[in-house]
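Query structure, 160 tokens:
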């Protein structure tokens, strides 16, 4: 490959990366996958990512913080948020740093609990379904149990 062809390949990867980032924020890992899937060479993808990182236009830590806030606003719990960041290729260090700001106030949990149960605690199957739903949303069992107790649910041994 001539120097001119190499520069053209690098510029093409950089343009594609900028286009992808104009749609939405991406992690380094996700951007690399996108560039490779579009047919760019590994060298060109690495060049584009390094260029963006050097200039502060791409950052896994900012991406992680933004994702945490987005999922928190949408009513997801800590476990689900961590899982989503891991799925998107964010490192454990960046995930932990972003999760330091995560303060579960219980409002989202209580709101989802109210929406699902609608004040009716008489049906144990519905309570079980609600617990499973909240666990899938990423809430910890201790937080769910505490919210159910505040809501007035009498949990028996089957939930221990």
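Result returned for the query:
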């Amino acid at each position: 490959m001539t120097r001119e062809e190499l520069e053209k390949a690098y510029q093409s990867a950089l343009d594609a990366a900028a286009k992808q980032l104009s749609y939405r924020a991406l992690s380094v890992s996700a951007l690399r996958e996108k560039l490779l899937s579009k047919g760019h060479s590994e060298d060109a993808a690495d060049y584009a990512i390094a260029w963006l990182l050097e200039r502060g236009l791409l950052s896994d830590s900012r991406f992680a913080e933004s994702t945490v806030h987005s999922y928190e606003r949408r009513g997801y719990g800590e476990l689900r948020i961590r899982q989503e960041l891991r799925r998107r290729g964010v490192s454990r260090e960046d995930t932990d740093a972003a999760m330091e700001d995560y303060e579960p106030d219980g409002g989202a949990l209580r709101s989802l609990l109210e929406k699902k149960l609608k004040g009716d605690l008489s049906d144990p199957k519905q309570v079980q379904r609600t617990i499973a739903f909240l666990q899938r949303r990423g809430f910890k069992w201790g937080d769910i149990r505490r919210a159910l107790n505040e809501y007035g649910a009498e949990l028996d041994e089957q939930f221990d």
